[in-house]
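note to self — DONT lose this again. spent like an hour looking for the file last time. sequence + predicted structure for the chain T wanted, 149 res
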Amino acid sequence: MRTVDIVAAIGLLIFTALIAFVVIPSESADGVWYGLSPYFYPMVMLAGIAISSIGLLVQALTRPSVYADQPKVPISRAEVGFFLLAFAIIFVSTLVLHWFGTWVGGFVMIAGLMLFMGELSPLRIVAVAIPTLVVNYAIVTWGLQIPLP
């Protein structure tokens, strides 16, 4: 597992450098902007990824004892299957969101993931999904003034 952490940390550092120095500068248009630079939020997120990656790399290189009791295989086939199933739920929910809008697609995504994680109570699913959608809709529509599908 230690090797996986080292490779992942280095890969993420390369990814952040590529995004920060190649993708963001080439995709951001020049011109007049008001308020914060269009580079600001992406760079803040990349800084978080880079700092976390550096921490992971330092831990993997300086504290091998942390990895002593971990299995040789870092992820099982069942865990890969669960990841792929969650990915499929999110992907299908995104298509539903595109076809039927925020309220239906958002509810399908939240309910689907809650069912996937083992929640079977329809009352709890509705009690989580509806307020989450209402708050997000209010923030995006009225706070950020961005139309939702």
